[in-house]
Amino acid sequence: MGIIGVLVIVVGLLISVALHECGHMIPAKKFGVYVPEFAVGFGPQIFGVKKGETTYSLRAILLGGYVRLVGMFAPARDGVKTTNRRGKPTLAQEAREASMEEIPEGYGSRAFYLLHPAQKIIVMISGPLVNLFLSILFLSIALVGIGIPKASLTLSEVPQQLTTQGATVDAPAYAAGIRAGDTITGVNGSAVTSWEQMRQNIADSQGSIDIDYLRNGQLFHVKVDPLRSGDSVSIGVIAGTEYQAASAGTVASAVGETFTGTVSVVARLPIALWDVGRSIFTGAPRDSGGVMSVVGIGRIAADATSSDVTSSSGGWMRSAALLLSILASLNMALFVFNLLPFPPLDGGHIVPAIYEWIRRGLARVRGRKVPPPVDTARLMPLTYAMGTILVAMTVLLMIADIVVPISLQ
């Protein structure tokens, strides 16, 4: 049963990544950028189809995806150093040359770097915005489409016996004839519409309690002698679970909490990774609200759809809501993390575009010539450093999710 949860998360994550890349591709094409390839996954191509000028492909390593926008880096300006001390091209120059080489003959005017800064920002921010939309969508389905669980007056269980003060006694409700599946409608002649109201009426009662309940559409009335111990009054029934659609305000609040929680996790990421590393070597329990890899997320998804969970009352609905919440959190994480101002993340392209826009505006105000595009290739050392950090972080979290996993059970 747990495999179902893993498959839901894997497919949901791949769809989220694919739509993220669509968020980049659609406006890029709208602005005239040449887009030769759109891929889900990395590595060897499993399947590919060319539509128009773009090849859409599925690749073997399903850990992400990408869209190729040609001409990401502008040519070096006059006077810019393009070789190192050994006479070899710098990392920046290698990136510029590779960027120029991927532009087919006759497509030079369709390079990404030639876009207006505002267009660059739209192209790069649209991917994360798609993930924000998906996060809101998944939360809305979970909270409105499935609903928020609450105790139901339709009983999930009525045990035959109860243990009280170290002794086992017959359960009053069962002895009176009440069974699982019955719906309690009244206590001592007063109609009840919620589990809390029923409990309060029972707690306020004196002596025997009159219980009204429905079974297969027929109304029954019984007298129950409750168990009393101090202020505690019990008739021995266990609530079922019903789901109530959340309001728009509740959804908005959940989205806000998911966003602020994700920002908080990203802000303390170095400390969180340190704690994860310490857990690997000491075996200390991990923070249940901390960071994890796709391995850990898969384990949580498997727990959410295990036989023990889905066989219980409302189990499938509870599992579906949790899986949707996981996908919502993943998409919020993609939204927040991709906006960090470091290449190769989307924010690492947005910030230079903002700088370029400001610089062009100042030149216009001063009556000067419009400056050339920002030379983002000079950020390549930072790009490689960030790439190394991201790979190391992924490996660390995967090891932790195998050695000291976070689990729902």
Characterize the structure shown:
With 409 residues, this protein is α+β, with helices and mostly antiparallel strands. The chain has twelve helices and twelve strands. The chain has helices at 2-30, 91-101, 117-146, 172-175, 195-203, 248-267, 269-282, 294-304, 307-310, 315-338, 347-365, 380-403; strands at 37-51, 54-68, 148-157, 161-164, 167-170, 183-187, 190-191, 209-215, 218-224, 227-229, 232-234, 238-244. It has a four-stranded antiparallel β-sheet. The protein is elongated and about 95 Å long. The chain starts with a helix and ends in a 6-residue tail after the last helix.
Give me a quick take on this structure:
This protein has twelve helices and twelve strands. It is α+β, with helices and mostly antiparallel strands.
Output the keywords:
two-stranded antiparallel ribbon; 409 residues; 12 helices; four-stranded antiparallel sheet; 20% strand; 49% helix; alpha+beta
List the helices and strands in order: HEEHHEEEHEEHEEEEEHHHHHHH
Strand content: 15-25%
Helix/strand class: alpha+beta
Tally of helical segments: 12
Q: What would you report as the Rg, rounded to the nearest angstrom? A: 30 Å
Mean pLDDT, rounded to whole units?
Answer: 91
Number of beta-strand segments: 12
Report the end-to-end length measured between terminal Cα atoms: 15 Å
Low-confidence stretches: none
Helical content class: 40-55%
Largest sheet: 4 strands, antiparallel
Order of the strands making up the biggest sheet: 7-6-8-9
Shape from CA axes? elongated
